[in-house]
Q: What sequence folds into this?
C-alpha cells in the first residue's frame, strides 16, 4: 500500500463496506499530508483538538486557489451557503435563529412533542412486515422514517413527502468528494426543483403560518437563507439518520450475543445506540474545513489555506482513546465519541436523530424476530462521507404486535 | 520496604477525612476504588451528607431546585463511618488524633484535610445578626434566603459583586425583585477577571435592571426596633432602604481548628506539595497528612510554582482524587496535582467560564467575538505567554485555550481565528485592581491527556 | 435519584435538555441548569441524557439510599 493512495482508497467504492483497516493505516500518521496539499487528521485527540480550534474554518472560500470549495454558493441557485459552511459571527447568528423554534432555550419541547407521531410511523412501517419472510431494512424501515420526521420538523405537508425522498437522495451524494459529474448534475437539478418547491412553500407559510420550523422562521430570515437552511436540514438530516438506523440494525445482527442481551434488557438501547454512533458513525469524515493560519498539531504544521479532512470514524476507533476500539461494546464507559462531531459545528440534528433512533430501534427488535442477514456485507451507497448500506435484506421469522 | 509491600501496607489502616463535602466524598470514593480496605471515617460539621453547592446560588434561589435536594450523587459505596453535625476542633500530630467538638477523639494513620471554606461574615457582628442579613454558602443559607426572597420583599442589597454576589443579583432580578449591588471595586468581577471584562459585566448587570453602585462600600447596616434590617449606609453618603442584605465578600478558609497543630495552616489555607502532602510549619513535608479542595494551597509549575488555592468545584474533585491516590500508594507511583484552574458562573442569562489564572495576566486581547455583544473569548497573557482565557457564552472554545496554556503558547496570539474583530487586535492592560507581579520562573508545559498521565516538561526559554 | 453535571466539562451542547426537558434547562444560550434530584418517572429520560452528553459531564446515581450512618447526629464513638 503506497501512502499517497489512502484517500483515494477511502473514497474508492470497493472499500465502502469496510474502510476501517484503511483508517487504522491512516492513524499511523495522525496528521498526514497528501500529494495535493490536503491534510488528513485521523487520531482522536488531534481531531477533537482541531474541531475546537478557532483557526480552523468551515468556510471553504478560505482555501488556497485550486482546491475544491465544498458548500460554496453555486451560480445557478444563487443561494447563500448554509450555516454549516460558515464561521462565526454569521454562523452563530444563523444557528441561533434556526435553533429558536427547534430547541432550547426557546423551544425545549418541540422535538419531544413529535415523539408520538414518529412512534406511530414506526408502528405502521412494522405492521407492514406482517406476512413477509424477507424485508429490506433500508427501503421498508430506515428510509421512510427520517423523511417523515424532517417533513414534520419543517412543516412540509404529508402529501409532498414522496417528492422529498428523491431530492434528499440526489443532494446527499453531492457532499461526497468523489461525486463525479453525473452526481453533481443530478444534485444541481434536485436542488433547483427543491428550491422552487421551497420558495412556494415558504411564501405560503409566511402568509398562512402552521406548525413546524418554516412557519416560525419565515418572518425571521431572508427567503434565501431559509431555503438554504431547509435544504441543509433535509440533506444532512435525512441520509445520516437512514444510515444510523440501518447501521444499528446491521451491527446488532452481526453481534448475536449483544442482540440476545438487548432482547432481554431493553434498557440496553441507550448505551447501544451511542456505541453504534462511535463504531459506525453516519458521517465518516468532515472534508470541508480549512486552516486559517499555520497550525501545529502532532509535530506537523498545517499551512494556512490547506484543506483539512477530519476523519471522525478513524478517531472513533483510536486505541489511545478507546480500549479495544474495534470491539462493539455497549458497556463501554466514558463513550465520548465523535459520531456527531464536536465544537460549534456539533450536529444540529443530533437530538432529532437520537429521538428517531430511540423510537425506532427498540421497537424494531421488540417486534421483529430476525433470522439472518441475507447479504453480508450488504450493498453500500456510493457516498464515502455519509456512508451506509443501500439495501439491507434480512430474513425474518415473525412479527409480534 | 519494597514498593509492593509499601503499597500493600498503605491500603490498610485507618484513614480519616475531615470535611464531608465534595472533596471529602470524592476522595473517599477514590480510596475505595483504588483498593483501600481499611477503616474510613468521614467527619463533617454540617448535619447533612455531602451536597453540591453551585446550585445554591442559582437554581435553588430561583425555586427550580430545593436546597435539600442537592445531595451529591455517589460514584460508588464508600463504606465509611460518618460523623456528621460535629466539627473537628483540634489535631494532635504526635498522638495522630483528631479532636471533635463534642470531646471525642478519632485516631488515624493517614489524615485528609478537606474542611473547605465558609462565607466571610459581615464585619460588624451585631449588624450581621439583624433579621434580613444573609450570607450564602450552605444548604441552610440558601433555603433561608430563598424563603426570604419569595416572601414579598421589595429591595435586596447585595454587598460585593464577585461571582456569588452577581449570581444572587441575577436571581433577584429574575424573581422580579429590585436589587442594588454595592461593590468596592470599579466593576463587578474585577478581582477574578479584571476591569476590561468587569466593564462588560457592568453593562450586563445594568441592562438587566440592577442598580449597580461601584467604588462604594457599605459603612453600616441599620435595623428597626424589631431587629429587622431596614437601611444600609454607603461610603458616598447615600443610604438605601432594603429589607434584605446578602453579604458576598468572599470566603474564609476553615483552618482555625489546626491552630497549634504544627501544620502549615493559616488564613490562606493549608500548604501542601503538588502531591497534596501537607507541610509542617517548618516547611517540611509530612507523609501522613494530606489536603484537598478549597482549603488546600499547593505550588503549580505552570504558574511559576506559586502556591495557588483554588475555590473551584473542579479543583476539589481532581485534587481529592489525586490526594486519595497518593495516600495509598508508594512514592514512585504518586502523581502531581497539575490541574489547570477552571470555573464557571451563570448570571443574567450568560455563561461565564474561565481557564487558567486570569489575575496573573499583564495583558489581554479579545481573540474572538466582541465585548459589546456579550459573546466573546478574552485571552490573558503573562510575560509573553498565554496564561488564561475567559468566555462569555463561548464555552466550546475554551478547550483550545486550555491547550494553549498547557503548552506555554506565545502571547499575544498573532494567528488568524474565526470571528476575530479588527477593533480588538491590540493587547490591552486587563486592568486588575492590584497588579500582582510574581517573580520570573522557567517556562513549563504540561503533557498528557488524563490527570494520571499529566507531567511537567521544561522547555528552553524563547529568545 | 440524584445527578450532578460537571459544568467545567459542559459546553452547552444541550443534548440533555432535548432528551429530558423536565430535568435540564438552558438559561440563556449556553448556561445549563439542572434538577439535582429526580424521580422514577424521569429515569429513562435522564439515562438517555447522560448517555448522549457529548462531553460525558453528567453523573447519575440511581440508588436512592441516604448515606448509611447519616442521621443528623454522631455515631457512637468506638476507638
A:
Amino acid at each position: 500500500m503506497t501512502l499517497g493512495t489512502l484517500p483515494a482508497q477511502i473514497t474508492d467504492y470497493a472499500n465502502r463496506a469496510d474502510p476501517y483497516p484503511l483508517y487504522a493505516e491512516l492513524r499511523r500518521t495522525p496528521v498526514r499530508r497528501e500529494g495535493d496539499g490536503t491534510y488528513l487528521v485521523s487520531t482522536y485527540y488531534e481531531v477533537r483538538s482541531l474541531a475546537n480550534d478557532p483557526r480552523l474554518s468551515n468556510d471553504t472560500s478560505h482555501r488556497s486557489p485550486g482546491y475544491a470549495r465544498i458548500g460554496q454558493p453555486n451560480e445557478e441557485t444563487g443561494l447563500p451557503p448554509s450555516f454549516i459552511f460558515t464561521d462565526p459571527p454569521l454562523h452563530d447568528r444563523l444557528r441561533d435563529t434556526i435553533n429558536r423554534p427547534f430547541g432550547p432555550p426557546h423551544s425545549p419541547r418541540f422535538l419531544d412533542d413529535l415523539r408520538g407521531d414518529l412512534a406511530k410511523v414506526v408502528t405502521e412501517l412494522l405492521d407492514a412486515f406482517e406476512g413477509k419472510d424477507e424485508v429490506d431494512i433500508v427501503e421498508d424501515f430506515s428510509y421512510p422514517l427520517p423523511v417523515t420526521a424532517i417533513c414534520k420538523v419543517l412543516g412540509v405537508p404529508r402529501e409532498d413527502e414522496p417528492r422529498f425522498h428523491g431530492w434528499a437522495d440526489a443532494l446527499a451524494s453531492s457532499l461526497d468528494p468523489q461525486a463525479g459529474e453525473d452526481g453533481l448534475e443530478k444534485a444541481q437539478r434536485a436542488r433547483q426543483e427543491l428550491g422552487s418547491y421551497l420558495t412556494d412553500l415558504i411564501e405560503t407559510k409566511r402568509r398562512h403560518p402552521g406548525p413546524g420550523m418554516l412557519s416560525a422562521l419565515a418572518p425571521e430570515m431572508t427567503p434565501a437563507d431559509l431555503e438554504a437552511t431547509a435544504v441543509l436540514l433535509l440533506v444532512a438530516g435525512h441520509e445520516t439518520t437512514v444510515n444510523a438506523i440501518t447501521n444499528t440494525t446491521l451491527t446488532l445482527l452481526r453481534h448475536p450475543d449483544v442482540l440476545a442481551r438487548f432482547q432481554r434488557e431493553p434498557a440496553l438501547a441507550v448505551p447501544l445506540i451511542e456505541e453504534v454512533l462511535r463504531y459506525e458513525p453516519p458521517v465518516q469524515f468532515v472534508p470541508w474545513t480549512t486552516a486559517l493560519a499555520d497550525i501545529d498539531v502532532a509535530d506537523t504544521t498545517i499551512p494556512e489555506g490547506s484543506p483539512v479532512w477530519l476523519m471522525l470514524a478513524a478517531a472513533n476507533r483510536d486505541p489511545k482513546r478507546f480500549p479495544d476500539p474495534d470491539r462493539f461494546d455497549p458497556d463501554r464507559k466514558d463513550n465520548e465519541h465523535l459520531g456527531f462531531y464536536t465544537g460549534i459545528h456539533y450536529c444540529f440534528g443530533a437530538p432529532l436523530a437520537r429521538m428517531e433512533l430511540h423510537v425506532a430501534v427498540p421497537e424494531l427488535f421488540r417486534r421483529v424476530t430476525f433470522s439472518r442477514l441475507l447479504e453480508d456485507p450488504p450493498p453500500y451507497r456510493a457516498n464515502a462521507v455519509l456512508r451506509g448500506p443501500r439495501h439491507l435484506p434480512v430474513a425474518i421469522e415473525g412479527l409480534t404486535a | 520496604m519494597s514498593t509492593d509491600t509499601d503499597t500493600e501496607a498503605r491500603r490498610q489502616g485507618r484513614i480519616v477525612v475531615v470535611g464531608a463535602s465534595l472533596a471529602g466524598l470524592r476522595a473517599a470514593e477514590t480510596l475505595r476504588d483504588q483498593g483501600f480496605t481499611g477503616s474510613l471515617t468521614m467527619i463533617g460539621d454540617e448535619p447533612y451528607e455531602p451536597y453540591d453547592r453551585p446550585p445554591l446560588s442559582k437554581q435553588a434561589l430561583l425555586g427550580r431546585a430545593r436546597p435539600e435536594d442537592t445531595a451529591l450523587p455517589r460514584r460508588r459505596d464508600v463504606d465509611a463511618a460518618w460523623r456528621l453535625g460535629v466539627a473537628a476542633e483540634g489535631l494532635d500530630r504526635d498522638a495522630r488524633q483528631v479532636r471533635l467538638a463534642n470531646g471525642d477523639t478519632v485516631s488515624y494513620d493517614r489524615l485528609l484535610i478537606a474542611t473547605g471554606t465558609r462565607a466571610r461574615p459581615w464585619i460588624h457582628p451585631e449588624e450581621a445578626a439583624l433579621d434580613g442579613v444573609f450570607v450564602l454558602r450552605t444548604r441552610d443559607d440558601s433555603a433561608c434566603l430563598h424563603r426570604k426572597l419569595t416572601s414579598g420583599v421589595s429591595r435586596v442589597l447585595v454587598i460585593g459583586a464577585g461571582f456569588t454576589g452577581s449570581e444572587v443579583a441575577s436571581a433577584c432580578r429574575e424573581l422580579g425583585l429590585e436589587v442594588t449591588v454595592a461593590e468596592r471595586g470599579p466593576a463587578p468581577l474585577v478581582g477574578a477577571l479584571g476591569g476590561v471584562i468587569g466593564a462588560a459585566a457592568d453593562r450586563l448587570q445594568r441592562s438587566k435592571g440592577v442598580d449597580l453602585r461601584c467604588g462604594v462600600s457599605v459603612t453600616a447596616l441599620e435595623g428597626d426596633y424589631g431587629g429587622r434590617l431596614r437601611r444600609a449606609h454607603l461610603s458616598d453618603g447615600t443610604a438605601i432602604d432594603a429589607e434584605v442584605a446578602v453579604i458576598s465578600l468572599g470566603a474564609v478558609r476553615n483552618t482555625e481548628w489546626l491552630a497549634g497543630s504544627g501544620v502549615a495552616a493559616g488564613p490562606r489555607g493549608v500548604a501542601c506539595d503538588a502531591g497534596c502532602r501537607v507541610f509542617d510549619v517548618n516547611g517540611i513535608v509530612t507523609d501522613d497528612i494530606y489536603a484537598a479542595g478549597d482549603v488546600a494551597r499547593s505550588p503549580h509549575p505552570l504558574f511559576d510554582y506559586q502556591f495557588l488555592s483554588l475555590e473551584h468545584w473542579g479543583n476539589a474533585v481532581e485534587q481529592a482524587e489525586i490526594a486519595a491516590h497518593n495516600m495509598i500508594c508508594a512514592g514512585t507511583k504518586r502523581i502531581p496535582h497539575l490541574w489547570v484552574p477552571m470555573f464557571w458562573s451563570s448570571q443574567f442569562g450568560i455563561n461565564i467560564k474561565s481557564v487558567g489564572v486570569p489575575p496573573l495576566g499583564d495583558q489581554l486581547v479579545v481573540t474572538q467575538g466582541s465585548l459589546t455583544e456579550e459573546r466573546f473569548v478574552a485571552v490573558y497573557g503573562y510575560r509573553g505567554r498565554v496564561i488564561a482565557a475567559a468566555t462569555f457564552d463561548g464555552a466550546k472554545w475554551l478547550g483550545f485555550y486550555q491547550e494553549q496554556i498547557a503548552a506555554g503558547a506565545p502571547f499575544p496570539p498573532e494567528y488568524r481565528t474565526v470571528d476575530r474583530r479588527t477593533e480588538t487586535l491590540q493587547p490591552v492592560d486587563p486592568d486588575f485592581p492590584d497588579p500582582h507581579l510574581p517573580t520570573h520562573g522557567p517556562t513549563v508545559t504540561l503533557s498528557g491527556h488524563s490527570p494520571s498521565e499529566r507531567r511537567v516538561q521544561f522547555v528552553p526559554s524563547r529568545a | 435519584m440524584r445527578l450532578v453535571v460537571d459544568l467545567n466539562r459542559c459546553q452547552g451542547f444541550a443534548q440533555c435538555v432535548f432528551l429530558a426537558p423536565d430535568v435540564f434547562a438552558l438559561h440563556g444560550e449556553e448556561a445549563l441548569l439542572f434538577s439535582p434530584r429526580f424521580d422514577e418517572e424521569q429515569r429513562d429520560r435522564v439515562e438517555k441524557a447522560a448517555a448522549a452528553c457529548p462531553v460525558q459531564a453528567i453523573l447519575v446515581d440511581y440508588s436512592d439510599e441516604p448515606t448509611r450512618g447519616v442521621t443528623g447526629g454522631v455515631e457512637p464513638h468506638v476507638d
Chain B touches chain C through 52 residues (CB under 8 Å). Residues 119 and 251 of chain B are 5 Å apart (CA to CA).
